[in-house]
């Protein structure tokens, strides 16, 4: 030990030793603690293990480029919901007026919480389990809950990718198989399939040919082998992408993230050239301002913002954990958030252009069918020819002519009008038919594409886009499972990923039985909404109120090189937690007011019918919610009462290349060694608080603390204030 060290000086002094661990470490030359007397863990030195730990900390995977990372985050956040959920909500909740609450909530909830997840992942460089164990060990269950929710969502999300794969391969034929109803030959007679005739060709193909759906969730009906093969294909693709790691999956993102934009732009150009497309777009942007005062609109906008960015799943944290610590994650959060918003608007334009075209087609069909009824009534003298306006030409009847004729007949035949069975055939009624989810993608959109010139080409492009959107989100969802588990338990990535995919496929067989679509609806509606809301509230509380907003802002200041806006201080500490609590309360009330149910397809009626879940299905539903949130109280209780060790009193110090590498993920707040600071911000698997104190909004620049350079890289160690002083 050097003669001029503080320890040597104290040996020859009668003064009482008051130096802390931080003071001692700050003035000593770097040594290898495992190979010296400074072994604070009491472990025997294992050279091979030490080398492996060094390699693990030095060789954490990283993105090949910033563009690859941004595309991965975009691919994860921009998913199927942008294409088939956002347009539905826009149509349902006031058209253009809905964009106002959505944008407001994106700014005060979405952006701050997205920035928070990016920042903690990049700073701590661990998956969701490691991140929340570091920030607050008692809330370490947040990471496990995120993994469970990711698993539940991945189970049914990959089924939707399987459906898209099925339709993709069915698109390579002309005419498209869902363009006409099948003909059944009965001896010398040929009749149209009754179920198809009562509904439509696309509806029949979806429910009968693709899903082979049963009449209720209680009628299993066995496995649908076509969808089982498609599900196996989907899990194989996802598994291979995840096994290859972020370098390979990042390269996949170049295609899977950009291709949907190419398709959406192509559809937009083609859609705008379709007859009636402008009607659809005008319908979308015509604001219903009274809707903005409806609390339900704000609740649905908040929920959409919440899920659009993938908050709480752990995928955002996992992706950002592979970044360098000096990466500007604030820019990333802003960029990805608004790209997500503009993607939703672009998809809505495309959807409404196509639905405007479809509405005109259906309206013309309605006019033709009802005109034939009127001609029949005229020929049988049920109606008088005097009721028909003189300028009406039945061979070239327009929607305007029919509307005028309809009004005259309704006025004259007021007493017996209902018996005639005539429809008004209003374009507005067709445009107001709300379609979302699978109904939009596999029924409404497929029906519109049958009227496109070169319809197989557009069908191939559309379903390839859905596959890419789904894969981008699934890769992020799987990263939310694999990254934290591998970081925490050090399992082999290949073995764990393969095992996870096999288990998910086997459990996912419930979604490819004949009643599988009803289970998809159940998981989509209830497996994630409430648990994720709880997870994100606790994430916000853990950072803002337990770890400390000022302390967190201080670390961001050091990491980013600039102080984040005061806006984030107040949104993290007050606004976002309050808004999320209101959203959670509203979700619970909604669940209690509206008993859970699903839309069943009744074969005999060829129509949908709302049914309530049976008792056993309700039990599954409740178990999903409980299981997803169970890690939160379990981990809290185990660590609060010290039933399991969280490493709170252990300090593991490693000297390496002149830097101190320290695992402080589970130290108690009153342990002064937790606050040993480092000036070297990057390349460490577990971060250390910085040497500048952020004094909260409205204060001057952070206070610089003196340092004593040591070792090859000149890193010093400093003592920070305790968290109690910052809360």
TrEMBL record:
Keyword Acetylation found: no
Region (Disordered): 680-727
Gene Ontology BP term (one): glycine transport
UniProt GO MF annotations: metal ion binding; symporter activity
InterPro entries: Na/ntran_symport, Neutral_aa_SLC6, SNS_sf
Pfam (any one): SNF
Localisation: Membrane
PANTHER family, alphabetized: SODIUM-DEPENDENT NEUTRAL AMINO ACID TRANSPORTER SLC6A17, SODIUM/CHLORIDE DEPENDENT TRANSPORTER
Identification of the protein by name: Transporter
Protein source organism: Mauremys mutica
């Amino acid at each position: 030990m050097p003669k001029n060290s503080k320890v040597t000086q104290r040996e020859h002094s009668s003064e009482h030793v008051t130096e802390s661990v931080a003071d001692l470490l700050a003035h000593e030359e770097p040594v290898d603690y495992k190979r010296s007397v400074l072994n604070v863990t009491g472990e025997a030195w294992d050279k091979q293990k030490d080398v492996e730990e060094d390699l693990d900390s030095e060789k954490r995977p990283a993105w090949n480029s910033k563009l690859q990372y941004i595309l991965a985050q975009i691919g994860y956040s921009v998913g199927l919901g942008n294409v088939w959920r956002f347009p539905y909500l826009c149509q349902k909740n006031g058209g253009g007026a809905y964009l106002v609450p959505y944008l407001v909530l994106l700014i005060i909830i979405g952006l701050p919480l997205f920035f928070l997840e990016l920042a903690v992942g990049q700073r701590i460089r661990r998956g969701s389990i490691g991140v929340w164990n570091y920030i607050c060990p008692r809330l370490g269950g947040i990471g496990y809950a995120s993994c469970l929710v990711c698993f539940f969502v991945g189970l049914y999300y990959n089924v939707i990718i399987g459906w898209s794969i099925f339709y993709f391969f069915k698109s390579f034929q002309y005419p498209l198989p869902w363009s006409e109803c099948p003909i059944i030959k009965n001896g010398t007679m040929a009749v149209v399939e009754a179920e198809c005739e009562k509904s439509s060709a696309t509806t029949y193909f979806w429910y009968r040919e693709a899903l082979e759906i049963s009449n209720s969730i209680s009628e299993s009906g066995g496995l649908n082998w076509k969808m089982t093969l498609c599900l196996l294909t989907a899990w194989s693709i996802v598994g291979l992408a995840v096994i290859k790691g972020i370098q390979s999956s990042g390269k996949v993102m170049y295609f899977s993230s950009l291709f949907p934009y190419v398709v959406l732009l192509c559809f937009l150009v083609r859609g705008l050239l379709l007859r009636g497309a402008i009607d659809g777009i005008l319908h979308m942007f015509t604001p219903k301002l009274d809707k903005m005062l409806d609390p339900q609109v704000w609740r649905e906008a908040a929920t959409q913002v919440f899920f659009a960015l993938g908050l709480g799943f752990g995928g955002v944290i996992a992706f950002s954990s592979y970044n360098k610590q000096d990466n500007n994650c604030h820019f990333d959060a802003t960029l990805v958030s608004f790209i997500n918003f503009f993607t939703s608007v672009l998809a809505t334009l495309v959807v409404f252009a196509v639905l405007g075209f479809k509405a005109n087609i259906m309206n013309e069909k309605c006019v033709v069918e009802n005109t034939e009824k009127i001609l029949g009534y005229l020929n049988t003298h049920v109606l008088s020819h005097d009721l028909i306006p003189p300028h009406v030409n039945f061979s070239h009847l327009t929607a305007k002519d029919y509307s005028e004729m309809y009004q005259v007949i309704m006025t004259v035949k007021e007493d017996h009008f209902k018996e005639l069975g005539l429809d008004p055939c209003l374009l507005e009624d067709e445009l107001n038919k709300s379609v979302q989810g699978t109904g939009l993608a596999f029924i409404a959109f497929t029906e519109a594409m049958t009227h496109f010139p070169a319809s197989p080409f557009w069908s191939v492009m559309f379903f390839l886009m859905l596959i890419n959107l789904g894969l981008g989100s699934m890769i992020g969802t799987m990263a939310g499972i694999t990254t934290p588990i591998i970081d925490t338990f050090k399992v082999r990535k290949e073995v764990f990923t393969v095992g996870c995919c096999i288990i998910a496929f086997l459990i996912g067989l419930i979604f490819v039985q004949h009643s599988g679509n009803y289970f998809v609806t159940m998981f989509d509606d209830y497996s994630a909404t409430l648990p994720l809301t709880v997870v994100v509230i606790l994430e916000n509380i853990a950072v803002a109120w337990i770890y400390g907003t000022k302390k967190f802002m201080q670390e961001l200041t050091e990491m980013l090189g600039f102080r984040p806006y005061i806006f984030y201080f107040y949104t993290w500490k007050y606004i976002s937690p309050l808004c999320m609590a209101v959203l959670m309360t509203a979700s619970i009330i909604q669940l209690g007011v509206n008993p859970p149910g699903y839309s069943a397809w009744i074969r005999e009626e060829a129509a949908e019918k709302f049914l309530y879940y049976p008792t056993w299905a309700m039990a599954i539903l409740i178990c999903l919610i409980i299981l997803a949130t169970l890690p939160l109280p379990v981990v809290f209780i185990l660590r609060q009462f010290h039933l399991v060790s969280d490493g709170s009193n252990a300090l593991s110090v490693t000297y390496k290349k002149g830097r101190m590498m320290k695992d402080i993920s589970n130290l108690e707040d009153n342990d002064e060694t937790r606050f040993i600071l480092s000036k070297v911000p990057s390349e460490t698997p577990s971060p250390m608080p910085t040497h500048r104190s952020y004094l909260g909004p409205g204060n001057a620049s952070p206070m610089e603390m003196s340092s004593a350079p040591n070792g090859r890289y000149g890193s010093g160690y400093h003592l920070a204030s305790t968290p109690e002083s910052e809360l």
